[in-house]
Design goal:
Mean pLDDT: 86
Number of strands: 0
InterPro entries: Tnp_DDE_dom
Number of helices: 4
Protein name: Transposase
Shape: flat
Number of domains: 2
Order of helices and strands: HHHH
Radius of gyration: 18 Å
Low-confidence stretches: none
Organism: Mucilaginibacter mali
Pfam families: DDE_Tnp_1_6 (PF13751)
Strand content: under 5%
Amino acid sequence: MEINHSLRIHKQIAKERLNTEKGIKYRKRRPADIEPVFANLKHNHGFRRFLLKGMSKTEVEIGLLSIAHNLRKWKA
């Protein structure tokens, strides 16, 4: 078993930042900013799973979905 001490330090710093007033404000805003995008893709556009395999191909696929989403928003 290996322990990555650098990672533990970064996690602790992130935890401390998330528990500040500014971090709490950002965490409260996240559901209103991010979650509806995924819900829209899943419910309204039927996106349930990636069609392609491999990290580079799924990155392309999510990029195309993001472009389509942004174009729909821009059109509205």
